[in-house]
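The record is passed on directly below:
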Amino acid sequence: MQQHRAQGKLVALGVLSMVLAIVVLPGVSQAAEPQPKVTEGKLVSLEYTLTLDDKSVVDSNVGEKPLTYTHGSHQIVPGLEKALEGMAVGDTKQVTVAPAEGYGETNPKALQEVQKQLLPPEALKVGARLQGKAPNGQMVYPLVSEIKTDTVVLDFNHPLAGKTLHFAVKVLDIQQAQAEPKQ
């Protein structure tokens, strides 16, 4: 009889230990699945604020639709893309991007002098932003940088060329990117 009770206790202890191994007790953590990281080919959703050295806000999507891009596909400036590598959902970071890793240095060859009469009268002021198409069909947005007697100097540099960019970013989501449909 004693032997049967001892075996019964052992069986009960064995069952109890199996139940405890299966049930997650409050305060006891189990190993979570590894969180996805920002790596090449991942579809990444971000919240960001972009400022310049003078602290002026250039752009922000905080509280709005996230910026979604495929990491490694050169859809965002290179310096930011490099800084996001390895981040996980919920991670935040302050990123400073030098002009060479952002929109490039200011290119003096991107200045073009045109005859004044080619522009509409309302565009004849320094700081006016124009819109047009380059010979290859690409949209361009030159800035009127100088007005001379008979000509106007247009600056075809990107508006953020030559500027250091400061991003405050938060990774909102990371997914496997969809494969491009084959044609």
Residues 1-6, 10-23 have pLDDT under 50 and may be disordered. The first helix runs from residue 2 to 22. The chain is about 15% helix and 30% strand. The first strand starts at residue 42 and ends at 51.
